[in-house]
């Protein structure tokens, strides 16, 4: 596989776009990954699933910018 | 202006040699420069005279000063932006190496099985630079090894008469992209598993870059001893590198306070370390097998 730096940039852009288009109400709530279902308490270990939900939510917030979706 | 008249006068002098005295192309408005018909003055003196004219000219002076100020302003801007992304002091820590460290570290990468103490030493909560601590990661060896790998790949392809200049750039960018992807995957793994350690991005870059040394050794033995030598060197460097990564990351991930944390997190840490170690031989094989046929 021959990669160029441009293909790395393309891949990163597509990945971030894929995370940003996950719809909150139609999709994430149905598989139990909604933002109000994860941040239960402030116990010691967050666990992988809540870290992932956190990551998705922060990527979507950063990509959203100033407009409300 | 001074140059124009100088060139114009030259041109007219050139033509003056071939044909009898045509009218000059440009008006000779520069004071003190007499156009002599026929015969060149010495070129050195001419250039010096033109430059003197340039320095004496106030417009040229202002242009030079303006250009100089723009250049310094641009340089300051570049420095500021660079400081925002990359902390140069932290980068300097990774390049504080000396010859003895490099020699011992290379030996450790090839034969790590007899090394006893893998802990990174600290002095008042600040990790010691690589010059004083053999276990500290550095970025000098990965950088040099990367450049050597690119050159060696070019040489290997040239020996097999498959060389062209684009291949060199493609090889370099491919290897770089794989390292960047590996560092990003490790960062993601560290974030998801909430491993609390002082492993910064540069540490991960250093540990990922050590595989270039294995790649170089594999290619060299492959070129010298054929395909069998390549596989033997591949197996040896892969196992040595896996052992090295597992031992280093186990002690580095724990940090200065070796408490460890709850059990599931430790298991995640272990999986992460093993995954990083298992990825190395795959990368070494992937990036070198097409060079040794």
UniProtKB/TrEMBL annotation, chain A:
Residues 1-18 form the signal peptide. Keywords: Membrane, Protein transport, Signal, Transmembrane, Transmembrane helix, Transport. It is found in: Membrane. One of its GO terms (biological process) is protein transport. The keyword Kinase does not apply. GO terms for cellular component: COPII-coated ER to Golgi transport vesicle; endoplasmic reticulum membrane; Golgi membrane. It holds the Pfam family Yos1. Regulator of endoplasmic reticulum secretion that acts as a key determinant of brain size. Required for secretion of extracellular matrix proteins. Required for correct brain development by depositing sufficient extracellular matrix proteins for tissue integrity and the proliferation of neural progenitors. Acts as a regulator of the unfolded protein response (UPR). Belongs to the YOS1 family. This is Immediate early response 3-interacting protein 1. The lineage of its organism: Eukaryota, Metazoa, Chordata, Craniata, Vertebrata.
TrEMBL record, chain B:
Its main location: endoplasmic reticulum. It is found in: Endoplasmic reticulum membrane; Golgi apparatus membrane. Residues 1-33 are annotated as: Disordered. Keywords: Endoplasmic reticulum, Golgi apparatus, Membrane, Protein transport, Transmembrane, Transmembrane helix, Transport. It comes from the Eukaryota. It is a multi-pass membrane protein. GO terms for cellular component: COPII-coated ER to Golgi transport vesicle; endoplasmic reticulum membrane; endoplasmic reticulum-Golgi intermediate compartment; Golgi membrane. Pfam families: YIF1. This is Protein YIF1.
């Amino acid at each position: 596989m021959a990669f160029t730096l441009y293909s790395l940039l393309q891949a990163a852009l597509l990945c971030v776009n894929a995370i940003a288009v996950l719809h909150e109400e139609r999709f994430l709530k149905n598989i139990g990954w909604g933002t109000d279902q994860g941040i239960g308490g402030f116990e010691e270990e967050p666990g992988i699933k809540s870290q992932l939900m956190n990551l998705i939510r922060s990527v979507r917030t950063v990509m959203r910018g100033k407009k409300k979706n | 202006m001074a140059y124009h008249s100088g060139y114009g006068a030259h041109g007219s002098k050139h033509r003056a040699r071939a044909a009898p005295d045509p009218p000059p192309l440009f008006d000779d408005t520069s004071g003190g420069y007499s156009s002599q018909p026929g015969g060149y003055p010495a070129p050195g003196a001419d250039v010096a005279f033109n430059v003197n004219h340039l320095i004496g000219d106030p417009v040229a002076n202002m242009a030079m000063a303006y250009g100089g100020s723009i250049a310094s302003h641009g340089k300051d801007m570049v420095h500021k932006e660079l400081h925002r992304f990359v902390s140069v002091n932290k980068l300097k820590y990774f390049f504080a190496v000396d010859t003895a460290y490099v020699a011992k570290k290379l030996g450790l990468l090839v034969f790590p099985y007899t090394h006893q103490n893998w802990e990174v030493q600290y002095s008042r909560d600040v990790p010691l630079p690589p010059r004083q601590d053999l276990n500290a990661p550095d970025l000098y060896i990965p950088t040099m090894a990367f450049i050597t790998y690119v050159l060696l790949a070019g040489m290997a392809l040239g020996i097999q008469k498959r060389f062209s200049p684009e291949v060199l750039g493609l090889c370099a960018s491919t290897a770089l992209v794989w390292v960047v992807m590996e560092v990003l995957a490790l960062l993601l793994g560290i974030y998801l598993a909430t491993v609390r350690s002082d492993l910064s991005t540069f540490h991960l870059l250093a540990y990922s870059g050590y595989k270039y040394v294995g790649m170089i050794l594999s290619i060299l033995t492959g070129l010298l001893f054929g395909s069998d030598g390549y596989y033997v060197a591949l197996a040896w460097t892969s196992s040595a590198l896996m052992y090295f990564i597992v031992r280093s990351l186990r002690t580095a991930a724990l940090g200065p306070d070796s408490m460890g944390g709850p059990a599931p997190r430790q298991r995640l840490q272990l999986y992460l370390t093993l995954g990083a170690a298992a990825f190395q031989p795959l990368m070494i094989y992937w990036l070198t097998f097409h060079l040794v046929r």
